[in-house]
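Give me C-alpha cells for this 79-residue protein.
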Amino acid sequence: MAKAAIEKIPLVEYEILKYVLREIPLDFLREQMCPKGDEVSQTRFRKGAENVSVLISNLVERRRHLLPLNHSEYKEKGE
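Here you go.
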C-alpha cells in the first residue's frame, strides 16, 4: 500500500509525539537513575515521568485541530 504525502508539519509532530508516548520505554533510564531499593528516587522518577507524559499529551492535544480534516483524530479547535 502506498503512503500518502504528508500534508502538514503538525501532522508529523502529532504522530511523532504519540509515538514517543506509546513506544519509548523508560525502564533503562529508570535503572540508570534510581539505585536499587531507593524508594525516594523511584517515586521521584515516576512523578517526573508522569509530568513529562502530561506535557507531551498536551502537545499532542494542541495539534489535533491542525490535522487534516480527514484524519481519524481530527478535532475542531475549542471542542
